[in-house]
Amino acid sequence: MSTATATRPDLPVTGGPGRVARPSRPSAGQVLFWSAAVAVPLLFLGVFFAWPVVVMVGRGFVTDGHLDLSAFAEVFSRPRTWRIVGLTLAQASIATALSVLLGLPGAYVLHRRRFRGRSVVRALVTVPFVLPTVVVGVAFRSLLVDGGPLGFLHLDGTFAAIVSALVFFNYAVVVRAVGGLWERLDPRAAQAARALGASPWRAFRTVTLPALTPAIASAASLTFLFCATAFGTVLVLGGLQFGTIETEIWIQTTQFLDLRAAAVLSVVQLVVVAGVLVVAGRARSRQERALALGAPSQTVRALTLRRPAGRPRGDGHAPALAAAAVTAVVVALLALPLVNLVVRSLRVGDRWGLDHYTALGTTGGALTVTVWQATLNSLRVAVDATVLALVVGGLVALVVSRRPRRTAGRRAVAGLDALFMLPLGVSAVTVGFGFLLSMHHPFGLDVDLRTSPVLVPIAQAVVAVPLVVRTVLPVLRAIDPRLREAAATLGAGPGRVLRTVDLTIAARSVGLAVGFAFAASLGEFGATSFLARPDRPTLPVVIFRLIGRPGADTYGMALAASVVLAVLTAGIVAACERLRAAGAGGEW
């Protein structure tokens, strides 16, 4: 036992019986592998993320070969800029607060209680998060327009509609992040507080809530990040009246060709994102320290929705019923836009029919290819993007999961982790337009990548890499170092230890990461809208084109195409939920 505890987790041990084992020096192969594991992701991020962003921003700040920062004063002197920044912060703040308030009861019911159909409800709750933002916008428009089920509220094109859609989109972030910690909390502390006379609310406020604070802070930070950088949903619902910094970058770039304004707004967004990522990173660190990510203790009994024997009705049962009622209402509201989307897609004039779905096989008007061809193209692109994201994100998770003993090493690992989270918050419009500016003979090479179809899966992989990292990393960090030490003691080389310990334990989370990366790639719209070739558009691009064309038939085709995309992503989420139920981990 002393031999196992005296060694470092990732190195083989030496020494015979009775001797304290010392870690051996890493071999040349180990050094080469870990160097490549760091270099390959950094090269990918540098070439396909940092470089396009730098070129895009640089075009706005360089005039006649000289640095010119006067654009900041010019852009911030416009009332429109302050209005957009204010709207961004207001939308994100209100939507985050509502998501947390509604998500806490959902986290309790879906992760702390057991009942029939729980996995189905979990999958349903997660579907909105992975739905393409364009589909979410179309679903809400079909719900709120005149003639829609909620048309009498006259919310179409309003601030409230955007906030509602953002809550719809991010509710699952709170439920999964907080619920993942809540289901692993030992209930005996709260039970002790109740035994000492504390009411259910006081036990929750003084015992459970402090323990959940790291997860709540992490979920709130990520929700704010996703809301502040929302693009497709806000573009569809808000138009030109309501927008975010993200949509304003798109407008300034595509409609006004004002790269100076777009560059300034990109820098502003990057500053906001960096601040949110710092908060999220610290909250995540506290969460990981508070949570033993292994299997829950066998001493913790699974809770049920049935009233415990001998406990009087109302003694702690009322809060559970209230949480269940709130969750039931929220789940029904989450399902309403999706159900209405399907119903409206089947409505043809005054009758029911499949005419809109039949029209998906035709071209003309806004389409140069059929919707089915765009669907196949989206699937092919998503497969390529998922493979790239899995390789890059897997290497990042593997490196970041290690815990160096030296302070400098720990800081380097934390910095690498934060670095690969930046694509979650930097404007996809900035990345996409940066590709167009930087990939014309990049780095002096005699090749124009702007006409190549490889840019679309690369851009989608940049967005999907953080999801892979966040899904796989917690599982790798949860591996007991003694397992690696035991394998090394039994003679396994570093490669075999990695294969038989790390990869075996993380296999299910890798499958989960594949599903999320595929769903995210399938619905990516911001960067793809710049890079997709006219003869090879993706399904979200086609849906947005259909929305922009007048006519009831074209709008019906957009609804039908949105249903197709929603069904694809929902199927992926259902498969992911089965993996999670089978034991996969991760923050999502």
UniProtKB/TrEMBL annotation:
All copies of domain ABC transmembrane type-1, residue ranges: 85-280, 375-576
PROSITE patterns registered for this protein in UniProt: ABC_TM1 (PS50928)
Transmembrane region(s): 31-51, 84-108, 120-139, 159-178, 211-239, 259-280, 320-343, 381-400, 412-437, 457-476, 509-532, 555-576
Main location: membrane
GO BP: transmembrane transport
Bilayer disposition of the protein: Multi-pass membrane protein
SUPFAM superfamilies xrefs: MetI-like
A GO cellular-component term linked to this record: plasma membrane
Keyword Glycosyltransferase: no
Entry's localization field: Cell inner membrane; Cell membrane
InterPro entries linked: MetI-like, MetI-like_sf
Alphabetical UniProt keywords: Cell inner membrane, Cell membrane, Membrane, Transmembrane, Transmembrane helix, Transport
Region (Disordered): 1-23
CDD domains: TM_PBP2
Keyword RNA-binding: no
Protein family per UniProt: Belongs to the binding-protein-dependent transport system permease family.
Name of the protein in question: ABC transporter permease
